[in-house]
Automatic annotation (TrEMBL):
GO terms for molecular function: hydrolase activity. It comes from Flavobacterium flavipallidum. Its EC number is 3.4.-.-. This is CPBP family intramembrane glutamic endopeptidase. The keyword RNA-binding does not apply. Coiled coil: none annotated.
């Protein structure tokens, strides 16, 4: 089983704490190019260094900022590879899936399904609320954005999945010897990771229902499917389509997307709808396609650590 693959005596929980520190450190190192670029611009133009995240997001060209932000995830992914291979003596495959090799068909199915749903829902919402959106398409900036997004967003989303649904999921399983504790903890930490997103300040804490609910959904499909493939595909589609289709002045990613959202952010039903309606439908689709059974055991059962 996927979550059981890291249950071994030498994988003490303190190793996961140390490994997490290494991954976080690598992420911070990956942010140095952004800091240097901002400092160079302040030196050349005489402008003051931006003191807020929002200020940094608007200080440079949006495509350059987008690239430099995503670059930090390349460093973080390198940190994951080092920690898994050299600290835990595991393979990346064992952190990914219980199958003999990564099932790319699962990744592409999940990616395609969520990409279609996302594109259709955005276009329908734009059509029904034309006053809330402007057509923001500029061929050259969008082309540059497209290249950056296609190359780096899968690395960004995969890094987050390998940390939460892979590394920490297996780490908490080592600690608790069950499945429900890793599922709950990784969902809460995943939600908390978005604490400093600008959406939180604009919409309020209700948005954590979406963040934590999304983490819970991704954790459930990982445990039920005995691998991260479906979560990898979903997360990549979610961020890639979001970055290319819609941007706003208050979103985490400022991009040269096709549409710009002019609406005033508020805590409406659209924040909760994915968690209470869309995600259950996706669980039904995945469960039927991949013949999931023994839900209670796979999500809450104990783990036999004997080898």
């Amino acid at each position: 089983m996927f979550i059981k693959q890291a249950i071994r005596k030498q994988n003490k929980f303190w190793k996961y704490l140390l490994g997490s520190a290494v991954i976080i450190t690598m992420s911070f190192i990956g942010q140095i190019p952004l800091v240097i670029t901002v400092l160079v611009k302040t030196a050349l133009t005489g402008e003051n260094y931006p003191m807020t995240n929002e200020g940094v997001m608007h200080f440079l060209d949006s495509n350059l900022t987008f690239f430099l932000i995503l670059l930090s995830f390349v460093f973080a992914f390198a940190g994951i590879y080092f920690v898994v291979n050299y600290m835990h003596k595991q393979t990346m495959l064992s952190l990914t899936t219980s199958r003999k090799k990564i099932d790319w068909n699962r990744i592409w199915f999940s990616f395609g399904l969520w990409a279609i749903i996302s594109i259709v829902s955005v276009l329908v919402y734009v059509f029904l609320n034309p006053e809330l959106y402007v057509f923001n398409f500029k061929p050259i900036p969008f082309t540059i954005l497209f290249v950056i997004a296609v190359l780096l967003i899968p690395i960004q989303t995969s890094t987050e999945e390998y940390v939460f649904r892979g590394y920490l999921m297996q780490g908490f399983a080592n600690l608790a010897q069950n499945r429900w504790f890793p599922l709950v903890m990784t969902s809460l930490i995943f939600g908390g990771m978005h604490l400093f997103n600008p959406e939180v300040a604009k919409i309020g804490n209700i948005i954590f229902v979406y963040y934590i609910g999304t983490g819970l959904f991704l954790g459930i499909i990982t445990l039920m499917d005995d691998g991260m493939e479906l979560a990898l595909g979903f997360h990549a589609a979610n961020n890639l389509i979001g970055a290319l289709l819609v941007t706003s002045d208050w979103s985490a990613f400022q991009t040269n997307s096709i549409f710009k959202d002019l609406s005033v952010p508020n805590a409406g039903f659209d924040i909760i709808m994915p968690v209470v309606l869309i995600y259950p439908v996706l669980l039904l689709i995945f469960s039927r396609k991949y013949q999931w059974k023994n839900w209670k055991e796979k999500l809450t059962g104990t783990i036999d650590s004997k080898h």
